[in-house]
Write a structure and sequence with these properties.
Blueprint: H1 29-36, H2 40-47, H3 55-68, H4 74-79, E1 86-91, H5 99-112, E2 116-121, H6 126-138, E3 143-146, H7 157-161, E4 165-169, E5 179-183, H8 185-198, E6 204-208, H9 214-229, E7 239-241, H10 246-256, E8 265-268, H11 271-282, E9 289-293, E10 307-310, H12 313-328, E11 339-342, E12 345-347
Parallel strand pairs: 1-2, 1-3, 3-4, 4-5, 5-11, 6-7, 6-8, 8-9, 9-10
Antiparallel strand pairs: 10-12
Helix pairs in contact: 1-2, 1-3, 5-12, 8-9, 10-11
């Protein structure tokens, strides 16, 4: 037809249009085969790295792939296996420094298994957590790693029955049996408070997160256990649980530090609380000892350095992801859910700088 270029007239480096392709103008293996003058099976062997292709033929196929801009359709390949080669990770807040190494560790394990990771933040909202989890399942992720915001996860039971692998991390699932990877929150808090007691402190405050959160409750339990072990009665005004916004934490710290018998030391329940308390103590007229749960950036550079109970966020993420792929790579037989608890570590900084007990 007039005005229609033949195949020979097209520039060699310009991909041809493929109106009949399912993906619009995206070149297919059929297009590669036609350009290289080989069969479709030969192109498949080259694309998938299979043997049985001569060097000259492989060169022609690779040149055709390069010229057309062909890319292998991995989604179609994995879907034939009943998988999408993707997993989801639902965190509390991607901006929280604690979740950075955890997320990276999950991503590295996923990458080693040829899977992509999709992240989402629940903002500590159970409804948003459920919305995210079900949206990811609707997009057919192979599995989910969840830091739970809610305490009822029965909504995930149909997804688990459908074959979606599920692992909870940092906090256990609510009202369902599922794999969970935790830090020793109770033992870590008990060790941190015992450290303060060993330095002579008796009036020790505890400022933590919302009491419904598993980690907050366990760390409070560890605080109480250390005080009880030392025979020290706890005044309820020494304990403050609630949202970790700076204003709430500031008020709690200032109340504990005022009055005729103020606390001489504070144990903080997580990194966000610790940062706010450090700011309060920097303006306080007298020295107050501080131990925090979770390490914080530059804690070793402060004067005195801040002693912390450190948990291994990367190990939490790595262990959870490995457990997830253990489920996915299994032979289909049911594996009973496991509860895995990782140890914490007391990182002592400036112990000799702790203030004298009044």
């Amino acid at each position: 037809m007039p005005g229609t270029a033949s195949r020979a007239d097209r520039p060699a480096d310009r991909p041809a249009a493929h109106a009949g392709s399912r993906y619009g103008n995206r070149p297919t293996m059929k297009d590669v085969a036609a350009r290289a003058g080989v069969g479709l099976k030969t192109v498949s062997r080259v694309v998938n790295g299979e043997p049985g292709v001569t060097p000259d033929t492989e060169r022609r196929v690779q040149e055709a792939i390069q010229a057309l801009g062909f890319r292998r359709n991995d989604s179609a390949r994995v879907l034939r296996k009943g998988r999408t080669a993707s997993i989801g990770l639902i965190l509390e807040d991607l901006a929280d420094p604690f979740y950075g190494p955890l997320s990276r560790a999950v991503e590295e394990v996923a990458r080693a298994h040829g899977a992509l990771l999709i992240n989402g933040s629940s903002a500590e909202d159970p409804a948003r957590e459920q919305e995210l989890a079900l949206a990811l399942c609707a997009r057919r992720v192979d599995g989910l790693v969840v830091i739970p915001a809610g305490d009822d996860h029965r909504y995930l039971e149909p997804e688990i029955r459908a074959g979606v692998a599920m692992v909870f991390v940092d906090r256990p699932a609510g009202r369902i049996d599922a794999d969970v990877v935790l830090s020793d929150n109770f033992g870590g808090a008990r060790d941190g408070v015992a450290h303060l007691i060993a330095h002579g402190h008796r009036r020790i405050g505890f400022i933590g997160d919302m009491p419904r959160i598993h980690t907050a409750a366990e760390r409070l339990r560890g605080y109480r256990a250390a005080m009880e072990d030392a025979g020290i009665p706890v005044a309820e005004k020494w304990i403050s649980l609630g949202a970790t916004d700076p204003e709430r934490v500031r008020r709690a710290a200032e109340e504990m530090l005022s009055g005729p018998e103020p606390v001489t030391a504070v144990f903080t329940g997580n990194n966000r609380v610790t940062v706010t308390v450090i700011r309060v103590l920097s303006r306080h007229p007298r020295p107050v000892a501080l131990v925090g749960f979770d390490d914080i950036e530059l804690a070793d550079l402060l004067q005195p350095g801040v002693t912390v109970v450190a948990q291994d966020a990367a190990a939490l993420g790595r262990t959870a992801a490995e457990r997830l792929f253990l489920q996915l790579d299994g032979d289909g037989t049911h594996v009973a859910p496991e509860r895995i608890e990782l140890p914490t570590r007391l990182v002592m900084r400036g112990s000799g700088e702790l203030p004298p007990v009044e």
